[in-house]
Specification:
964 residues; 29 helices; alpha+beta; disordered C terminus; seven-stranded mixed sheet; five-stranded antiparallel sheet; 24 strands; globular
Length: 964
């Protein structure tokens, strides 16, 4: 089919699609946030663990707006996305209705659904009549046929699934086998095979019965009614001084309900034995915290202390012992389940320890177990288990964990042939795939990487931290009983699948296709696709292939014979994955070119390959919308260069709130809280495009980039979208990149190419100036020294003392500060887990109460100095003097240094009062200096109460709506 949506006059000018016009972004953004409720999320999230799934409303908007004609009314578009009450009055603006409900959400009575008057959009598919309306519009716009929507890096599958819910021709492609199986379940089996509810229950029960019988000896009951549901485990190493076992537990809690209340394991030293025994105690009932504090385990960051003789083993020594296998696994608590459904905790018994020993002996003697999942692990840059000797995948599991998963695999294999013989090929394939997904999902909470979640008292997930870490307190989960049993997990997966089936009622299954392979080498014809909606891999935020290996090695055992092409290799494909993986370049990195540089180049090349392939398969006049959620300029720089060089013309950009601000799984990472929808078109006369474009001078482009970034920021502030200040900056990247793309190639006066990141640096600095104008009353920070300005702007933009390093570095570049150069001399910031952490006056000023010779030379600000070149140093010193020596001394100190007439001092103090979060000691110190007699002595024309009250809750990124 050839669809060229040209203008009605027949020339080569493209007819615009809806995403190139005005969109109801605020209402969709509000719905995105509502969907982030962890208690009630879309069913695809429960099929199997995966990463960075896009919200349903944003995905629907991206799909529909990329193919519908410009001019579709906002109300109509929102109604098709399933936002707004079905009985809304035709005169009511749905966007305003949703915003009003959002503003009164905190005072609501009842559920969110009651308050808004309609359910979350993911629970509603478009009606048949709505599909007909949409299809009629689309056929008229796309020359009589429905456009095909494709997602070439589909991941968890939200985009293609939502496309299919509108009964659109849909193609999903994915390189990684794990999400490929999910895509098959969602976009192939659900519409074609339909419900499998009774079959999944039948075969799940059979698998569970077989495996449970074979596992009973490894989870012995203390009595006939109490069977262990999981063991809380740690490791022990031998004390070199007294030969006593040292348990490597950081905290002794088993289940904690508050800081001083809960259930804990209390270690007991046995006379004449090197072994530690345990009691299960309930605090504060059984024992007072003064006698035993569960917070204080023997393991700390620096090492571990022997409970008997007090000798401390250093952390490096422990790591070496682990690498050499010189450790033991120890149970220190047992969670049990009773027949009636209740449960509790008890201390481990000799029977539990004997079961452990039997598991060790079986794994050593059973060839099948001894050789199971023996693939060497891929040790990535963030892997924290490899240095402890976890080199093969089998070593990521204790003997009991390995046996548990093996017995369920064996039970599955016993049922596999019966399933094949009883059902047709497609139904059997669907059944086996979904049963396998449930078994793989169980792996996530039953490895040496799965922490004991003490808030719930059961296994946490290994993949939640996005890296593999050996847990000092982990769980051996009994899949045959308890609240994380196999049947419970399978029920969740089966219920999710059934819900997905219900959402596709009336959809034509022939309109869906799932491909598995490299997005840079698609098995599709030239000019065959009308619209691509892509959520590309996030640069270096997530190394998907590395993380999925844990489940891949098990799924290969389950369905490798069913999908031999997908599971042909030992581990997942690292070579073709489009991520910036620095671990791939350890051996070739040098002083002249770092592994990060190599990784960035590789990411750019692979994204360019993907975009070039998409350019090939998209028909002339076709649309590509990129959904990108990343903070780092380097990621945007790479993505933009790849996009432009592929031949696409950037036609529009839109920011949309897509995530809960500062969500815990990405705190400190590269992911932003908003998504930018960046749309490009393939020119109608693509075959006639001239590759020799005339370069544009950077001096001409620079002013345009600053102006368009400022305009975008002001528009966002006026629009009242729920974006953080950081995301206002990121959102301005879109219009900036459009200016850059229109001018590409861009060169400087030496005829050297100027990369997109230069435009992004200008945009960041320009938008920051807009934020200063908006939120700092009457301040011109550019009159201050650069270091003070950077510090104040950092607080203004991030509203937190900790933020991503690249954000801080880029902010510094914009005002002429190399933050690495000032780090040591000013101590204005330090590193915290790779992020920037701003320092306070307590961190920077020498203690005035000590004699000069006793003061720390690690703190750079001398409170006895008579002048300061950095205004922040002066204010920090004044805050210290007031705090340590009181108001009278502070007044004399200020006047002696003429700060009562120093405009820079007063401007810095005023700015700090506006940018520091309230209810922090630093803001209170600044407040004290600006009140009372010091206020009068300085001749201040403001007081802290003059400024709008900051968001309650310190050190947390706020939304613009909290300030406007």
């Amino acid at each position: 089919m050839s669809q060229n949506p040209e203008s009605k006059d027949g020339d080569s000018e493209l007819k615009r699609v809806a995403i190139e016009g005005t969109l109801p972004l605020k209402a969709v953004g509000i719905e995105n946030l509502k969907e982030a409720n962890p208690q009630h999320m879309p069913p695809h999230r429960y099929l199997h663990p995966w990463f960075a799934r896009r919200p349903t409303p944003a995905s629907r908007l991206a799909v529909l707006a990329s193919i519908l004609p410009e001019g579709v009314e906002a109300n109509e578009l929102l109604r098709w996305i399933q936002i707004g009450p079905s009985d809304v009055n035709g005169n009511v603006d749905i966007s305003s209705y949703v915003a009003d409900r959002k503003s009164s959400e905190d005072s609501r009575k009842g559920t969110l659904e009651d308050h808004y008057g309609y359910p979350r959009p993911f629970t509603r598919s478009p009606t048949e009549s709505q599909r007909d309306e949409i299809h009629e519009l689309l056929r008229d716009f796309w020359d009589g046929d429905l456009p095909t929507v494709m997602d070439p890096t589909a991941g968890g599958g939200v985009i293609p699934f939502e496309s299919l819910r509108y009964d659109l021709p849909t193609i999903a492609n994915e390189l990684n086998p794990i999400p490929s199986l999910m895509l098959k379940a969602m976009n192939e089996y659900a519409p074609e095979v339909g419900s499998l509810n009774s079959e999944l229950k039948q075969w799940g029960d059979k698998i569970d019965t077989i495996a449970s019988d074979n596992l009973s000896q490894y989870f012995p009951s203390a009595n006939d009614r109490q069977r262990p549901s999981h063991y809380a485990c740690t490791y022990t190493v031998t004390c070199p001084e007294c030969a006593c076992n040292i348990p490597l537990v950081k905290k002794w809690w088993l289940k904690k309900s508050s800081s001083s209340k809960g259930i804990a394991a209390k270690p007991v030293l046995s006379d004449g034995s090197d072994r530690i025994d345990y009691k299960c105690v309930s605090l504060p009932d059984d024992i007072s915290k003064s006698e035993f504090n569960p917070q204080n385990g023997p393991k700390t960051r620096s090492g571990a202390e022997c409970l008997r003789c007090g000798v401390v083993l250093e952390a490096d020594t422990i790591q070496n012992m682990f690498y050499e296998g010189e450790y033991e696994i120890e149970i220190y608590g047992v969670k049990y389940a009773e027949d009636g459904g209740n449960g509790g905790w008890r201390a481990p018994t000799e029977g539990d320890r004997q079961a452990h020993q039997e598991a060790v002996e079986r794994v050593e003697s059973d060839f099948a177990l001894n050789s199971l999942i023996s693939e060497n692990r891929y040790i990535g840059d963030e892997d924290r288990a490899g240095p402890y000797g976890v080199k093969e995948w089998r070593e990521a599991f204790t003997p009991i964990q390995l046996i548990t998963h093996y017995e369920y695999l064996q039970a599955f294999n016993q049922c596999k042939e019966q399933i094949h013989s009883r059902y047709d090929e497609r139904r059997a394939e669907a059944l086996l795939t979904i049963l396998s997904l449930a078994a793989s999902k169980a792996v996530d909470r039953n490895t040496r990487f799965s922490p004991l979640d003490t808030s719930k008292g059961y296994p946490g997930d290994a993949l939640g931290g996005k890296h593999f870490t050996l847990q000092w307190a982990f769980v051996e989960n009994n899949l045959s009983t308890g609240n994380q049993r196999y049947r419970t997990i399978l029920d969740r997966v089966a219920n999710s699948y059934e819900e997905i089936v219900s959402y596709l009622d009336g959809v034509d299954p022939s309109r869906s296709e799932v491909l598995t392979g490299d997005a840079a080498d698609l098995s599709l014809d030239d000019n065959s696709i009308q619209a691509v909606v892509i959520d590309p891999p996030y640069y270096d935020s997530i190394i998907y292939s590395e993380l999925s290996d844990m489940c891949y090695v098990w799924l290969k055992e389950y369905v490798g014979s069913l999908f031999p092409d997908m599971f042909s290799s030992d581990l997942t494909n690292k070579t073709d994955e489009a991520v910036a993986n620095v671990a791939e370049y350890d051996e070739v990195a040098s002083k002249s070119k770092s592994k990060s540089d190599f990784a960035a180049e590789d990411y750019e090349d692979k994204m360019a390959g993907i975009f070039q392939e998409l350019y090939r398969i998209i028909e002339p006049g076709g649309v590509m919308t990129v959904m990108f959620t990343h903070k780092e300029s380097s990621a945007w720089d790479t993505l933009t260069k790849s996009l432009i060089r592929s031949g696409f013309t950037v036609t529009s950009t839109h920011p949309i709130t897509s995530e809960m601000p500062q969500r815990t799984d990405t705190r400190g990472g590269g992911s932003a809280d908003s998504t930018l929808l960046l749309t490009g078109r393939k020119p109608v006369d693509a075959d006639e495009q001239n590759d020799e474009a005339i370069p544009t001078l950077w001096s001409d482009v620079r002013a345009d980039t600053r102006e368009v970034a400022k305009e975008a920021a002001r528009d966002l502030l006026d629009a009242g979208l729920s974006l953080t200040k950081t995301d206002v900056i990121i959102s301005a990247f879109g219009p900036t990149l459009k200016v850059y793309a229109d001018a590409y190639p861009v060169v400087d006066d030496q005829d050297q190419e100027v990369p997109p990141r230069r435009a992004l640096e200008e945009a960041r600095e320009a938008v920051t100036r807009v934020l200063v104008e908006e939120y700092l009353e009457g301040e011109r920070l550019d009159n201050l020294d650069d270091i003070t300005e950077w510090y104040i702007l950092s607080w203004l933009v991030h509203e937190s003392d900790t933020f991503h390093y690249d954000d801080g570095r880029q902010l510094g570049l914009g005002i002429g500060v190399d933050i690495d150069d000032i780090k040591r001399s000013t101590k204005i910031w330090g590193k915290k887990r790779g992020d920037i952490q701003l320092k306070t006056h307590d961190d920077r000023v020498q203690d005035i109460t000590l004699p000069p010779e006793e003061r720390s030379n690690r703190t750079p600000v001398d409170p006895d100095a008579l002048s300061y070149t950095i205004a922040l140093d002066a204010v920090h010193a004044a805050m210290h003097i007031y705090e340590k020596q009181g108001e009278d001394v502070a007044i004399d100190w200020l006047k002696e240094r003429n700060f009562d007439t120093d405009a820079a001092f007063k401007a810095t103090l005023k700015a700090l009062l506006q940018v520091l979060p309230r209810n922090t000691s630093e803001w209170e110190a600044a407040r004290d200096l600006a009140l009372g007699r010091t206020h009068d002595a300085l001749g201040l024309e403001f007081t802290p109460t003059d400024f709008a009250k900051a968001k309650e809750g310190a050190l947390e990124q706020s939304e613009l709506g909290d300030h406007t």
